[in-house]
Amino acid sequence: MGTMTAIAEIDLRPHALRIAGSAGAAPSLHNAQPWALWVDVGAVQLWADPSRRAAVADPDGRQMTISLGAALYSIRLELAELGLEPVVELLPDRERPDLVAVVTASGTASPDPALHRLWAQLPRRRTVRDRMRAEVAATVRHELTAHVNAEGCGLRWLDAVADRRALATLAMLAERTQQRDPRFLEELAYWVGAEALAAGAGVPGYALGPAGEAGHAAEFPMRDFGGGRRRLRASAQRPEHHPVVAVLTTGSDGPRDWLRAGEALMRLLLAASGHGLAASYLNQPLEHRGLRAQVRTELALSGHAQLVLRLGRPLGPWPPATPRRPPAELLRDS
Ligand SMILES: Cc1cc2nc3c(=O)[nH]c(=O)nc-3n(C[C@H](O)[C@H](O)[C@H](O)COP(=O)(O)O)c2cc1C
Predict the structure, then answer these.
(1) Are 52 and 61 in contact (CB under 8 A)?
(2) DSSP H helices in the chain
(3) What is the pLDDT of residue 7?
(4) For residue 67, which atom of ligand 1 is closest to its CA?
(5) Cα of 6 to ligand 1 centre, how many Å?
C-alpha cells in the first residue's frame, strides 16, 4: 500500500515542545504533574517523577501512575494529530520502573476525525468543582462508557439509591479521616500554597470549588482543600445535591492497570468536554486501603475502583486553566 513510512524518516524532536505541552496539560492528583519526557527521533519516552508524588494521599503511587496514564493518552493524540500511528509499550523495562511508557511512531496514519475532535479538547478540558447540572444523557453515558471500555477499563454509573448511599457513607468517612490527619493536611496545604503555585503546579483558589461545609453538605462530600482551618475561597454556591457519579474500574490492580485507567480517564474527560460536560473527583474513599476494599465489596464491583467521578454540565462559566510547568521543563536530554 505504501502508507508505511520507515521509522528512520520520522523525526519527533522538532515537535518535542508541542508533545510536552499536550502531555503536561493532563490532569494529575493535586496538579503535581509527576512526569518527564524524552523525545527521541522516532519515539517518546514517558517517565514518572516520583519526587512529585503526594506521599500521604498516594502512598503506593497509584494515583501518580493514573496521572501518567492521562498524559500518555495526550501523547497518543498528539502523535495522531501529527499524522503518525502511535504504538504504546507500557513499562518496557523491569530495571527502570519509572519509565512508564514508550510511544513509538510506527508509521503514518490517515487523519481520524474522532481523534482530532478529542485532541481539540486538550486545551479546553478542566476539572470543575463548582455547581453543575447533574445530567448526562443516556446516549452520552453509552458513548463515555464505550471510550473507557476501549481502553480496557470499566465504568459503573451509580444510580441505585443503595449504591449511592453506600459510597457516600464511605466517602464521608474517608473525608473526615483525612481532615483529622495532620500529615494529610500538611501535604494538601503545600499543593494549594504559594510555593507550589509559583512553580507552575498545585491547585489555585479559583479552582477549589466549594470548600468546607458547603462541599460537605452535598450527598457526596467534596474534598475540603482548605483543610477546615481557613476558607481558601468563599464559594457562594453549594454543589448540586445529587451529582451524576461514575466509578472507573480495572480488572486487576497493578501499575499497568493504573496506566490504562489514566488513558481511559483522559479519553473520557476529553469526550465529555466535547459535549460541554466536565468532571471532578470524589476519590477520598479510594485513598484509604480499607475503605477502598469496602467500595469494591459494597458496590459489588467486578473490578478494582480506580477513580470516582462526578460529571455534569457546569452552570457558570468554566474556570480558567490551572497552572502548568513550562513544557521545556518536562523535557529530558537523554
Ligand atoms: C488521579 C487523579 C486524582 C485526583 N483526585 C482528585 C480528588 O480527589 N479531588 C479533587 O478535587 N480533584 C482531584 N483530581 C483533579 C486534580 O486536582 C486536577 O486534575 C488538577 O488540579 C489539574 O486541574 P485540571 O484538571 O483542571 O487541569 C485528581 C486528578 C487525578 C488525575
Answers:
(1) no
(2) 16-24, 62-81, 113-120, 138-150, 161-179, 182-191, 194-198, 212-216, 255-274, 289-298, 327-330
(3) 47
(4) 31
(5) 39
Give yes or no for residue 283 CB within 6 A of ligand 1. yes
Residues 6+ apart with CB under 8 A from 194: none
Q: Does residue 8 sit in helix, strand or coil? A: helix
66 lines ligand 1 (CB under 6 A): yes
pLDDT of 158-191, one tens digit each? Answer: 999 999 999 999 999 999 999 999 999 999 999 9
Residue pLDDT, tens place only, 110-132: 989 999 999 999 999 999 999 99
Rounded to 5°, angle at Cα 140 from 137 and 141: 85
pLDDT at 2 over 50: no
Q: Which domains does the chain have, with CATH numbers?
A: 7-123 (3.40.109.10), 132-314 (3.40.109.10)
Which grid cell is 62?
497509584
DSSP 83: T
Nine cell digits for residue 163: 449504591
- Nearest residue (CA) to ligand 1, atom 13: 281
Largest distance between two CA atoms of the chain = 65
Average pLDDT along the chain: 94
pLDDT value at 233 more than 80: no
> What's at 200, amino acid-wise?
G
3-state secondary structure 197-249: HHCCCCCCHHHCCCCHHHHHCCCCCCCCCCCCCCCCCCCCCCCCCCCEEEEEE
Closest C-alpha to ligand 1, atom 9: 281
Beta-bridge partners for 178: none
| pTM score above 0.85 | yes
How do residues 67-84 score in pLDDT, each as one tens digit?
999 999 999 999 999 999
Q: Name which of 25-29, 55-59, 107-111, 194-198 the model is least confident about.
A: 107-111
Looking from the CA of residue 128, the nearest atom of ligand 1 is 26
If one residue of 29, 31, 62, 247 were mutated to test the ligand 1 pocket, choosing by the most ligand atoms within 8 A of its CB, it would be: 29
281 Cβ inside 6 Å of ligand 1: yes
